[in-house]
Amino acid sequence: MTTLDSSKEIQKNNSEVNETHEDFRMFGLITFLIADGMTFAGFFAAYLTYKAVNPLPDGAIYELELPIPTLNTILLLVSSATFHKAGKALLKDKNSDSQKWLFITAFLGIIFLICQLFEYFHLPFGLTDNLFASTFYALTGFHGLHVTLGTLMILIISWQSRINCGRLSSQNMFPLEAVELYWHFVDGIWVILFIILYLL
Amino acid sequence: MTILIDPQKTNNESLQPKGWLRYFSFSLDHKVIGIQYLVCGFLFYLIGGTLASAIRIELASPMSDFMPRDVYNQVLTLHGTIMIFLWIVPVVNGAFGNYLIPFYVGARDMAFPRLNAVAFWLIPPSGLMLVASYFVEGAAQAGWTAYPPLSITTPQSGQIIWILSVLLLGGSSIFGGINFIATIIKLRRPGLKLMQLPMYCWAMLGTSLLVVLSTPVLAGTLILLSFDIIANTGFFNPVLGGNVVVYQHLFWFYSHPAVYIMVLPAFGLVSEILPVHARKPLFGYTTMVFSIMGIVVLGLVVWAHHMFTSGTPPWMRLFFTIATAFIAVPTGIKFFNWVATLWGGKISINSAMLFSCGFIINFVFGGITGVALAQVPFDIHVHDTYFVVAHFHYIVYGGTVFIIFSSIYHWFPKVIGKMLNEKLGILHFIITFIGFNLCFAPQHWLGLNGMPRRVAEYDPQFQFVNQISSLGALLMAISTIPFLINIFLSVRNGKNAGDNPWNALTPEWLTSSPPPVENWEGDAPLVEEPYGYGKEISEQN
Fold first, then answer.
1. In the 3-class helix/strand/coil scheme, how is B292-306 assigned residue by residue?
2. Chain B residues lying within 8 Å of A185, measured CB to CB
3. What is the separation of C-alpha B400 from the centre of its chain, rounded to a whole number of angstroms?
């Protein structure tokens, strides 16, 4: 009781505290992307372990063709740059420019997905043929799902960035910044995936 | 960039139902969400406890006469899954975390209130789905570990529902973890330093890091497992060229940290309860913080000690044995700190204190068997026997569930504004403590003598000891009756608690009981020494 009444350490009604706080939505998104990255880390670890300890049955070694995935890598890297351009344009209040760059980014994403599907249809193996085939489709498919979601989000924010909409402007950059970070993350994962799956 | 909290926007309570109805709504108030977690978790605890009783009834006789063998498998799978994913993880993280963390950091709510509500509302549907899977050609039968090839060859629909349910619960857990990290790191009241936070904040920070880093791996693994079951791929199916050990590595990469996800918050809660009821500062605050972070780091690199009999190569056995033995160091530091906190304190013997002391006793025992199990020769001897069951329950029931009850006795006056009945509380503790030890201590002997776990039938020579264990389980089942009566009576006509019945110094006691919607009438108090008990007396001397 005595300790509580003295309570020097407890200062109520401190006027320093005002009712504002820092914007930590980006912090939350980064934490989420770390978690998402761990899912991919699990998949990569499984793939590399399979490659090291589980030999494929005879005559089941498939070579992956490089041209399409290389084109896809270039597409995604270029789309990262165009997204960055969109952000720069919006910062200067050039909404229509920003919208144009966002459309280009989404278009590149769609081309990526079409190339991916084209590759799927021309591969000499199916999902259940062997362990390598299964891990290939699981990894690229899970990444493709991320690209699909990203493309949808880009289309949404490009719609929101039209003039006089008010959802997205140089005053409120967060939706664009969040999707941009996500898009760069998906790009980064693709580069790692490309190295591990196609080049190694 | 800063966000101005618009009073018009945050005070949207008028849009939300008042009274008891708000517990059934998509409420954004962290206190309401905390209670939702606790009550929902307790209902699942009753279901899981009923299943546990069914297991002990079955094991009272050597033959499978109470239920068929496949039903026994379903019952033990549901028991494990419900107790871990729907009772302990949501309650010890979600319930107490949501209720206490905003108070401790001096905030009006969690960092992401909507995400918080979403995280809670994922739990009831997935839990109901899991329980209902019993009626769809049988629930999952492969245990809570769902090891392939067992999980691939048992009936599929139950296993798929199990996977879906655990994926949703994992998502809920990740959302909760993101929220706790953001709240503790970013939403602290100005002037409040990290090293001034109550210990539960540190425990929740460590736990949330484990959740964010390891739960996604489990999600990925279960997605691959569901492909194996539905789409006939062969990731974990040796017949199709797959590798079952990869599943075990990925599964335990989550599920060993999951043990710390279940027990670190309990460490934090007991560090809050002991100083209050012993009227002494928490002993060794800094070492406590570093040992929590040490457990987080080490907890991520010890998973393969669950797999010593899975053809693990010798170097891996050596590494994981040593790493596991190292975990005993930070854990031991924490135990000495708690005992030193009690040492020479002015201890009040009440239900919260008794359950906390029960936790210390049980957890020391579970910790010692844990270090023993980390030694490869011993582990190979008792692998997959009742020794493991006994060890696990000493950690998770004797450890965490005791602390959940202790915390309910400690924070009930704050949440409801009324005191719990101490006599019924002490009765609850005595029956639980005796029943728990009677139930699980004999299982060490059973395991050492070779009784395998997860099997409905056993060698008749073990019958007597199994009946003692079942008697203990009966006592544990009975022990919930005084608890429920106590809660019911105290909510209706308990003694008024006042704002601070324990004379505690942590911030949640410095507001009214029950707290107002935004936690404080004025500004949040700055508590620089949450454990400053006895300072006045020593200054006078």
1. HHHHHHHHCCCHHHH
2. none
3. 5
B214 touches chain A (CB under 8 A): yes
DSSP state of B21: G
SS (H, E, C) B161-199: HHHHHHHHHHHHHHHHHHHHHHHHHHCCCCCCCHHHCCH
DSSP state of B264: H
- Segment 102-161 of chain B within 8 Å of chain A by CB: 106, 111-112, 115
B133-to-B70, B73, B129, B282 alpha-carbon distances in Å: 14, 14, 6, 46
DSSP B421-473: PHHHHHHHHHHHHHHHHHHHHHHHHHHHTTPBSS-S---GGGHHHHHHHHHHH
Q: Report the gap between the CA of A7 and the closest CA in chain B (Å).
A: 9
Buried b (16+ CB within 10 A) or exposed e, B301-314: bbbbbbbbeeebee
Taking CB atoms and an 8 Å limit, are A9 and B4 in contact across chains? no
Q: What whole-number distance in Å separates Cα of residue B407 and Cα of residue B404?
A: 5
| ipTM of predicted assembly, 2 dp | 0.89
d(CA B292, CA B199) in angstroms, rounded, equals 9
Which residues 473-512 of B are in CB contact (within 8 Å) with A?
A: 500, 503, 505, 510
Q: B362: which residues sit within 8 A by CB, 6+ positions away?
A: B394, B397, B398, B399, B402, B436, B437
- Cα of A97 to nearest chain B Cα, Å: 24
pLDDT tens, position by position, A44-86: 999 999 988 888 777 766 678 889 999 999 999 999 999 999 9
Radius of gyration of chain A from Cα atoms? 23
Shortest Cα distance, chain B CAs vs residue A121, angstroms: 18
Strand bridging mode B2-4 / B526-527: unpaired
Write the pLDDT tens digit of every residue in B142-189. Answer: 999 999 989 998 888 999 999 999 999 999 999 999 999 999 999 998
Question: In angstroms, what separates the C-alpha of B101 from chain A's closest C-alpha?
Answer: 17
- Residues with Cβ within 8 Å of residue B70, at least 6 apart in sequence: B138, B141
- Asked if B178 has any chain A CB less than 8 Å from its own CB, the reply is yes
